[in-house]
Amino acid sequence: MVEAKNLCMRYEKGGRYALEDLNFYIDRGEFVFFVGSSGAGKSTILKLIIREIKPTNGILKIFGRDVGRLPRHRLPYLRRNIGMVFQDFRLMEERTAFDNVAFAMVVTGSSRRDIRKRVPHVLGLVGLHDKARTRVCDLSGGEQQRVGLARAIANRPAMIIADEPTGNLDPGTTLDIMNLLRNINLRGTTVLVATHNREVVDRFKKRVLYLEDGKLVGDEQKGIYAHVH
Amino acid sequence: MPMFISGFFYIIAETFKGLYRNRWMCITSTGVVMVTLLMLGLFMLVNLNISHITETVKEQVEIVLYIDDNADQETLDELGQKLSMHSGIAEVRYFSSDEHMGRLHRQLGEILEGYDSGLDNPLLASYEIRTNRPEAVVAMAEEFESYPGVSNVFYGQGYVENLFAVTGVIQMVGLALMAGLSVTAVFLISHTIKLTVMMRKREISIMKYVGATNWFIRWPYVLEGLLMGFVGAVLPLVGLYYIYEFSAEWVEVNNLVFLTLLPVQQIISELAKYLVPLGTGLGILGSIFSMGRFLRV
C-alpha cells in the first residue's frame, strides 16, 4: 500500500536532507506509528504521501502508483482515498459538524441522498450523533478532532494519515481519539500516525518506524517509544 | 440525484453562502469596483460628449468659394460641374450676388434701409461647400483656390486649424486617461479580491486536502467575482443615468444651445456595453488569478 525506495527529500537545493534514503513497506490494514523528535521527518513523510510535496530522489508508491510522477490533475483522486487528520483539526469553524463532514463528500461528488445517510452515521461512529448541528467553534478540542476523524472516514478511504492528532488534546481525550483510530483500523483501514507522544505509542503496541534526522533508524512490530533514544 | 447536479447545487449554494459569510469584504470589493467604474464611467460620459460636440462643430465647418466677377459663363459652368463631381464634397449650394444681398438685408434690417438697390451690387456670388471629411477642409480649400473662376476661398482660416488641433489633443488625453483608469481598476479590483481569497485560504487548503479539484474550488469564487463585478458595474450605471439626466436638464434649462449632448438612453447603453463586461470580466479574472497561489497545495 505504501512503499518507499531510497526516498530522499530536501526542501532547499543544497540544504540538508529532511529525509534520507528511506526504505520501508506498509501493507494494507496495518497500523503504523512514525515516531521521532521534532524535525526528524515524520510530517515530511505524510506530506509526501498526500503529494503536498514531491520527493527529491527515490520512489514513493501509494496504492501501487509512484506519487512523485503523478500528474497534478490526478492529485484530488489520490487524496480522496486518503483521509487526513491534523493536529490543528483544520475544520471550517463557522460551519456545523454536519457541514464539515458533508463537505468532504460533496467535493468527491456524492449524491445528496448518500450524504444525508452517511454523515449522521460517521458522526455516530465518533460519538457525535447529538452534535451534528453544532458549529465547530462551539465544540471542545476533543470533539473537534472527532469531527476531523469523521470527515476523514466519510468517503471510506483505504488509508487514514494523522499528523500529531493528539498534539492539542488532554490525556483523556487523547486516549479516546486513539481508540477511535484503532477501531477504524480494525475495520480494515490502514492507519498511519505521526506522533511524539510516548504514552500513546507504548500503550497501543503497534508497528513503529523510528526516524532520526531524516533517517529511518528502526522498524519494529509492537514497538515502544523508548527505543528511539 | 446525479452527482453533477449535487455538485451544481453545492456550487450555487456556496456562492451565496460565501457572499453572506464574507459580506463585509464582498461589500468592500463591490464598492471598489463601483467607485472605479463610476470614475471611469464619468470620464467616458465627458469624453463621449466632447467627441460628439466636436464632431458636430466639425460638421458645421464650411468652405465658401467666392466667384470671380469677371469670369465668363463657360468658366462658371465648368466650375459648377467640377464641384458637383468632386468626391470629397458632401453638399454644395450656389448663392448668387442678389441672394447674398437679400440675406444681408434680412440680417441687418434697418441699417441697410438707405442702401439703394439701384446701385451696383458689390457682393460676389459664391458656392458654400460641406466636405465629407471636415479634417480635409484645409487641403480642399487650397485645391479650390487654383480652380478657374474662383476669386477667393474662405473656410475660417486659423480657427479651423486650432479647432482640429484642440479636439485632437482632447481626444488623445481622454484616451490616455481612460486607459490609465482601466489599468487602475484592474489593479484595485484584483487586489481587493485577492484579499477576500486570502481571508479564506484555510478553507481552500481544506478543500484541497479532502480531494476537491481546482475547478470545484474555483467555481463558487468565480461566480462570486462575477456577481460582485456585475453589481459593481450596474450600480454606477444607474448612478450615471441620473447624473447625466440631471446634467442634460441643466444644460437645457440654462439654454446652452451650443452644447448638443448625446441622448441619455444612447449614452448609457454605450457605457453599459463597456462597463458591464469590464466589471464582470474583472470580477471573474480577479477571482481566478487571486486564487492561483492558494490552489498549489
How do you describe this structure in short?
The complex is a heterodimer of chains A (229) and B (297). Chain A has 229 residues and is of the alpha/beta class.
Helix content of chain B: over 70%
Percent strand of chain A equals: 25-35%
Q: What class do helices, strands and sheet pairing of chain B give?
A: alpha+beta
- Strand order, largest beta sheet of chain A: 6-7-8-3-9-10
Q: Largest interface, and how many residues on either side?
A: A-B, 26 and 23 residues
Q: Describe the sheet with the most strands of chain B.
A: 4 strands, antiparallel
- Give the structural class of chain A: alpha/beta
SSE string of chain A, helix = H, strand = E? EEEHEEHEHHHEHEHEE
Rounded mean pLDDT score of chain A = 90
Distance between the termini of chain B: 31 Å
Q: Low-confidence segments of chain A, ≥5 residues, pLDDT <50?
A: none
Q: Determine the number of helices of chain B (DSSP H or I, runs of at least 4 residues).
A: 9
Order of helices and strands of chain B: HHEHEHEHEHHHH
**Oligomerization:** heterodimer
* Unreliable residue stretches of chain B: none
- Rounded to an integer, what's the Rg of chain A over CA atoms? 17 Å
Mean pLDDT across the residues of chain B is 81
| Helical fraction of chain A | 25-40%
Question: What is the β-strand count of chain B?
Answer: 4
Number of domains of chain B: 2
How many E strands of chain A? 10
Could you walk me through the main structural features you see in this protein, from its secondary elements to its overall organization?
The complex is a heterodimer of chains A (229) and B (297). Chain A is α/β, with parallel strands linked by helices and 229 residues long. Chain A has seven helices and ten strands. In chain A, strands 6-7-8-3-9-10 form a six-stranded mixed sheet, with helices on both faces. In chain A, a hairpin with a 6-residue loop joins strand 1 (2-10) and strand 2 (17-26). In chain A, helix 5 (141-153) runs parallel beside helix 6 (171-186). The two termini of chain A are 29 Å apart. The mean pLDDT of chain A is 90. In chain B, strands 2-3-1-4 form a four-stranded antiparallel sheet. Chain B has helices at residues 3-21, 23-59, 73-85, 97-108, 137-145, 159-199, 201-209, 214-253, 264-295; strands at 63-67, 89-95, 126-131, 150-154. With 297 residues, chain B is an alpha+beta fold. Chain B has two domains: 3-57 and 162-295, no CATH class; 62-155, 2-Layer Sandwich (Alpha-Beta Plaits), CATH 3.30.70.3040. At the A-B interface, helix 2, helix 3 and helix 4 of A face helix 1 and helix 7 of B.
